[in-house]
Amino acid sequence: MSSPLQEAAQRVAKEFDYTDDEVLKAGKHFITQMQEGLLKDGTSMSQIPTYVTGVPNGTEKGVYLAVDLGGTNFRVCSIHLHGDTTFTLTQSKVAIPKELMIAKTAKELFDFLAKQIGLFLKEHHEEHFESHLRRRNTAASSPAGYRDENIFKLGFTFSFPVHQIGINRGTLIRWTKGFDIADAVGKDVCQLLQDAIDALHLPVRVSALVNDTVGTLMSRSYTSPGKTPTVLGAIFGTGTNGAYVEKLANIKKGLEGAYDKSTGQMVVNTEWGSFDNELTVLPTTVYDRDLDTASVNPGIQMFEKRVSGMFLGELLRLAILALHKDNLIFTDAAAIESTSPLKTHSGVDSSILSVAAADESDDLAALRKEIAVQLAVKQANVEDAKAIKTIAYAIGRRAARLSAVAVGAIVVQSGRLDTSSGAAGAEVWEDDIVDVGVDGSLVEFYPAFEEHMRAALRKVDGMGKSGERRVRIGIAKDGSGVGAALIALVAEGVKETV
């Protein structure tokens, strides 16, 4: 006979059920919102055209640069593509001085970034750098200057809201993450970086403005086995987003910048975290409502608040507190310390869900240790741990099933399932594989995340068992580095054709 605590935990877990019928309905709605976003701006899902009109196939060669300004650090990388789906990466990382995050002018910050690129080139590409200086000096009298192929092409991952108006053009909408340089708002961030690079006479051209999710798609497409191009790059980590390859003919809203029309396709950044902000098909528990009310952005990013690692720990925290309020959990000599993350909004790290899912022991020793260390609850008993495991499992499973809605809907929308080589039975021929690249702590470290996702994928309208079998899900690493370099490569092709 189960205890009152276990019965209560089961009731809470049941609230996080997401049924097959709900998956079916949500998949249809996801496609509807995708199509609305392709028609016009200002819709629930932004569906941002990226001006990237091709994905790599693993045969590309060359050395490209990538820089990543995503928060308090600035990363500079050079990526040597070997042409056989492999690459070599060299990188350096430096902290952004606090005073530059709130500088009076954009020039101060971008001069610092350009200086780091120069230092990186001198350290890791000294011969190329020195020969460039020699060529520049000898070619100074020539109108043509130095030859174009001696210039490094650079992909710029800039993880702040921008209005992209070309593959290497985008104006800053606003700063986030502690940056506040009013002078930069409304300016083209690629041009700001290029001006700073040119002032130092560096052999570098800013070829592409990069979203890290688009980079994930590119990275996976280069490194994935076989000849099938990747259709979707998805991040399931602290946040969640997806970028996919769409038919150009389906993008009805205006495109401002130049792009290569010859491929007939373009990568679209979905910004799917805001899918169904209206809560037409998304599940909503009392814990979801409380989380949203206390968030910095109530009423928006509703899909992300049910799927991403930033929020799953908070859902668990709210559920545990509800049980504690009813004197059901942590009653047997266990005490929640005053410094416990359970007492702090968003204090519980989502990694505890992975620990809970992975611990299959009778005494749940690993989970109880995590409760003691991460939650600052001493002497939690097996019953307490079992209840937390039950609820954590339900929250994680729901997140995976919701992820399947997004992945499945995009695979269906892409049209890749419309063609088949006719392989019989359970066999899937290479030409029929639909490749999906994923990145992020949730998909990498949460046990059975893909298993739960695949079970729900089969229920997405237009997918079924036969479609799900054709989907190959693989880890895509370093979208902001390798992916950015690959977009710089693709961008150079665009420059030559427009």
UniProtKB/TrEMBL annotation:
Pathway: Carbohydrate degradation; glycolysis; D-glyceraldehyde 3-phosphate and glycerone phosphate from D-glucose: step 1/4. The keyword Metal-binding does not apply. Keywords: ATP-binding, Glycolysis, Kinase, Nucleotide-binding, Transferase. GO terms for cellular component: cytosol; mitochondrion. The keyword Repeat does not apply. GO terms for molecular function: ATP binding; D-glucose binding; fructokinase activity; glucokinase activity. It comes from the Eukaryota. GO terms for biological process: glucose metabolic process; glycolytic process; intracellular glucose homeostasis. Its EC number is 2.7.1.-. SUPFAM superfamilies: Actin-like ATPase domain. Residues 232-490 form the Hexokinase C-terminal domain. Residues 9-222 form the Hexokinase N-terminal domain. Belongs to the hexokinase family. This is Phosphotransferase. The lineage of its organism: Eukaryota, Fungi, Dikarya, Ascomycota, Pezizomycotina.
